[in-house]
Structure formats: structure tokens, C-alpha cells
Amino acid sequence: MKQAKIFCEKEAPNVGSKAQHPLFRYPLFRTLFDSFAPQYVEDPVKYSDHLDTIQDFLFFQKRTTSKDLESLVGEPLYTALRGLQSLLKKHNSVNVIEMGLELSKLQFKDLIDTFEE
Amino acid sequence: MEKSLPASWRNSQAFVAHINGRHHEALMLYALGLCMRFGKDQSFASDLLQDFYLTLMTKSEKVQKQYAARGTSYLYVMIKHGMLDHKRKLKSVNRLEDVFGVQRPQIAAIDYLCFDIVYKDFQEQLAKCLNERDAAVMSLYIEGFSYEEIAAELALKIGTVGTIISRSKKRLREHFER
What we know:
heterodimer, A: globular, B: mainly alpha
């Protein structure tokens, strides 16, 4: 199976000394963790083993099973990571996924703007 | 303890726009993951999100309070319930077809628009040919509830629920085939 490569794309710059984990090169992970597990953004060093496991699940799949990940990060984040994993298999690029999600956000924003009070 | 609501959410639209701006990516990925876990096509994630935003808009006051008190976890639960409601409705349609048999309009299999009409008709038929307890059991059964849920809701044993459903299906089939 073709694997997405986390290190081969042009990366967004790191945004602070705490955001040294490779996952934080992508704004998407900051957004995702901000919603599901803000502690990963606030203290990435403390949760580096969690972040490593997530990285392995998404990009390498050498050690991490779905069951391991779900018990480690909880059902909501695990489910979102399953969704992200399916997109990675399809697009093989986090940047492309970020653009697709941004487009989706704008489309729904347009829909929301049509709602009446 | 419930936190006070930001003044910027003075109307429903502002609140929904806030959720869209801050959490859309995470919620979309969650909806996609749910589709994977429930064996649905990925395109269904957009339908789930659309229903979610509509609910935010129509029940804004309640959702704002829950969001302020429980944070984003309340939003995930809303989306998950949307998926479960959809699965239950599919089960409901299948059960209705099973019991209603030949009298069920064929278009109902592909179009939810007429489902409510068929369902209302079915409820009326239940009252005509079943006693009150059996009709209550069958009503929940047709809504897609499991035997365990029906037993808990009506304070019956699971075995009793199974017996009532089996007996009622036979009686209803005879009724509809007349």
C-alpha cells in the first residue's frame, strides 16, 4: 500500500518552541488537537509518546493497531484520525487534505450564511 | 458549572459561524471517521455535517449552553447521534417493509419523503389490530429500536418482547394481505 510521507512535502513553518513534534509542521494537526485534545498542543513534550503513536498510525503503520490507538487517545480523536487516515490513503498528502478541508469549510460557511434567524 | 456565553454569539448565525470557523476541519474528519466505522460512503460525511449545522441553527440556544458547559465533546456527540439516527431510520424502513409487505408503496424504498406518510398509516393500522401493549412494542420496533431497548423502555423481559414481535408480525401480515 502506498504510504503518505510526512517529511517529503514543503512544510509550514513551526510556530513555537513547544511545537517541535513533526506532526505540528502541519496546521491541520494543531486544529485537530485543539478541538479534540488541547493538551497535546499545550504540552507536546509530555504527550510526545501519544503524538509518536498517532504519527506511526497515520504515516508508517509499523507498530500501532487501531485498538492501541483508540485506547490511548479515546474514541472521538481516534475516529477523527480514522477519517484522516482514509483521506491520506486517497490523496497521499496532508497539504492536499488541508486544502480540501478549507474548501469544505468555506462551502459550509456559504450555507450558514443562507440560514435565516 | 456552566460558563457564561460570549456576547459575540448574540444570534444563532454568529454561533454557527464560530463553530464552523474553529472546529469545521475536526468535525469533518470525525464525520468521515464515523462513516468508516459504520461502513458508510465517505460522501455521507457532508450530509452528516449539513444536518449538524442545521441542528445548531434551529436549537442554537440549547446547544450554546451545552457547548459552554461541555465543550467540543457535545459537538461530537451530536454528530454521532446523527449517524445513529440515520442507521436506526434505515433499520426502521427495512422493518416496515418486512411487516407492511405488499401494501407498502414501492417508492418508499428510495424516497424518505413518503416514509412519514407510510409510517403514520402503519401506526393507525397497529391500533386497529393489536392490543395496546403489543402496539406499543411494535411501534418501537418499527422505529428501529433493539429488543433490549424496547424491553427497557416498556419494562418487559427481552423474551416477552421477542414473542410479542413475532406474534404481531404474523397478525399484521395477515391483516395487510386481506
